[in-house]
Design brief:
The complex is a heterodimer of chains A (298) and B (280). Chain A has 298 residues and is an alpha/beta fold. Helix content of chain A is 37%, strand content 27%. Classes of the chains: A alpha/beta (298), B alpha/beta (280).
């Protein structure tokens, strides 16, 4: 089974539009929307829910006021300023608590318990483009990396059960924990960038990240004609860092039009950006076939 | 006043709004600080081009075990909820990147075999352009946790009349860390289905923190009525609309501040700034 991950470093470069198009172009694939705190893929693929599941992410300290002797040890030991007290009450700030359990361990009255928390939900859905796993992290939620790992496992399970040999993963922006969780062990990472100085800066960092974790990367420049000079610089830079080139996609209002109509770009039209995306998809297929193509940074 | 510029969806124009607000305010001789809290991918410097004043390493504490003193009792592994320290066979293994620096292992060790040592995970850089002061965090490649870095950036903010916080995208813990303690949040969105959906999530996040917020629509033009309808329904005000313009996009691609060259954008940013000052 192959796992293709689409990430970008910088947000808003077109990850989700590409993933939906790839799902249309692939004969059979399982989709995983791993942008768990701003998931949008379901808006394009109109999913019907098969199962809804709680995501048990982390744990939080809970203080039993009846057993508490107000000694204040927990407040002193907490490194996250999560425990506060006044003359009559002691309370835990659930947003600040990391669930480290130091307060519970050292409480002489045994008044503190660690309680597992539901940090969101994850779903298995059927879509016209194949099965999809996706999630919704609670507002201001934690443990997004753990949720991404869970989704990837469930996507592989769904693929195995249905005898599908490709998983396409829509990642999140940045280079932090959800991104790391989405690329580890991937067969191919496609980095979507845009021809801006911000895009260029973020591209370099995200390729260094894929190199750091030994994941083979290819780069596609979206909306390349907004600034062809910067597009070329991005491609040269990507190659210097050891990433392959997957192609270029022109600026095309049809991309937003497709989104408004709830279609992937390649379902919406066949020329313009849709033709470019089809070519990128063919290049990715070739890359999967010739794995020696990847040259990692020394 | 401390204002955070946030969004659910990435690439809607947070940095554009934040840098232009900071620049226009500084031009008006106000004391302004810009904090780049998108520490995974900070882009504010591309537009503000600060001159560096200083730089320092952000560290977190991680345990170091003295194998001579340690008798392999295993209590450090029992207290650690993150599997960052484990006692296996005749050895205690530490996985620093999993450590949350709670200090539990150090506290629980009966032989005091554990000391906490600093581990660098990022750099904080401070600089200035004219009177505008600038602080940014930059997470090291391969590090997973940005909240401690965001805390470090905010801790270095000098006193000022206006502090602009450029937040990371999303609705998870890095955003919470960035907007916490701010007086007000501007949510930047674009009038697309993805922008609309993620705006709703971001709104829920900011409201759960009890911070007031308003909406800025970027690339306004097509399909804007759905965004305004959502804002009406949710009782949040749209306080500025920036036009969808190829010229602005091209200037952005070259790392230019739109309000420096474009009087129309400068006026829009100026009135947004005026609105912020009058409403707080």
């Amino acid at each position: 089974m192959k796992q293709l991950v689409v990430i970008s470093g910088k947000g808003g470069t077109g990850k989700t539009s590409l993933v939906a198009s790839f799902a249309s172009l692939a004969e059979r694939a399982v989709l995983a929307d791993c942008d768990v705190d701003a998931a949008d893929l379901h808006l394009v693929v109109q999913s019907s829910l098969v199962s809804r599941n709680d995501f048990w992410g982390g744990q939080r300290a809970v203080i039993d006021g009846d057993r508490c002797s107000d000694c204040g040890i927990c407040e002193d030991l907490c490194r996250f300023d999560a425990i506060s007290s006044d003359s009559s009450t002691i309370s835990v700030d659930p947003l600040a608590c990391e669930g480290c359990g130091v307060c519970a361990w050292f409480c002489e009255e045994g008044a503190i318990d660690l309680v597992r928390t539901i940090d969101g939900e994850w779903y298995l859905s059927e879509t016209r483009l194949g099965p999809m796993v996706h999630a919704r992290l609670k507002a201001a939620g934690e443990n997004s990396g753990k949720l991404v790992s869970l989704l990837r496992t469930e996507a592989r399970n769904a693929a195995t059960n249905r005898d599908i040999d490709l998983v396409i993963i829509d990642g999140s922006p940045g280079i932090g924990c959800p991104v790391i969780a989405s690329i580890t062990g991937a067969d191919l990472v496609l980095v979507v960038t845009e021809p801006t100085l911000s895009g260029l800066h973020d591209l370099e960092r995200v390729i260094r990240l894929t190199n750091h974790f030994g994941a083979p990367a290819m780069v596609v420049v979206n909306r390349y004609d907004v600034n062809e000079e910067v597009a070329l610089r991005a491609e040269r830079h990507a190659q210097k860092l050891g990433a392959g080139l997957a192609g270029r996609i022109r600026f095309d209002p049809a991309v937003t039009q497709a989104q408004i109509q709830g279609l992937s770009v390649v379902e919406h039209s066949s020329n313009g950006a849709a033709a470019d995306i089809t070519e990128v998809w063919e290049n990715l297929q070739r890359a999967f076939d010739e794995e020696e193509l990847y040259v990692s940074e020394a | 006043m401390r204002v955070a510029i946030a969004s659910g969806k990435g690439g809607t124009g947070k940095t554009t709004v934040a840098t232009n607000l900071a620049w226009v305010a500084a031009q008006a001789k106000k004391s302004v600080v810009y904090l780049d809290c998108d520490v995974e991918e900070p882009n504010g410097q591309i537009f503000l081009r600060p001159i560096k004043d200083w730089q320092k390493t952000v560290t977190v504490s991680v345990p170091r075990v003295d194998p001579v003193v340690c008798d392999l009792c295993g209590q450090c592994g029992q207290i650690c909820q993150f599997s960052a320290i484990v006692c296996v066979g005749q050895k205690v293994l530490v996985f620093p990147e999993l450590c949350h620096s709670c200090g539990g292992c150090d506290l629980v060790c009966p032989l005091s075999a554990i000391t906490e040592v600093p581990r660098g995970i990022a750099t904080v850089m401070a600089g200035h352009t004219g009177s505008l002061r600038y602080v940014q965090g930059l997470l090291n490649i391969g590090e997973a946790m940005s909240p401690p870095v965001i805390r470090a950036v905010k801790a270095e903010a000098p006193e000022a009349d206006l502090v602009i916080v450029d937040a990371p995208p999303g609705t998870a813990c890095p955003v919470v860390e960035a907007v916490k303690g701010c007086d007000h949040v501007l949510l930047v969105t674009e009038p697309t289905p993805f922008g609309l959906h993620d705006l709703e999530l971001a709104l829920e996040t900011v409201r759960s923190l009890g911070i007031s917020c308003e909406v800025v629509i970027n690339r306004a033009g097509l399909n804007g009525s759905a965004t305004k309808e959502l804002c009406r329904r949710k009782g949040v005000e749209v306080v500025a609309e920036f036009p969808d313009s190829r010229r602005v996009a091209e200037a952005y691609s070259r790392g230019e501040l739109a309000s420096e060259k474009d009087p129309e954008i400068r006026d829009l940013v100026g009135s947004l700034l005026g609105h912020l000052e009058n409403s707080t």
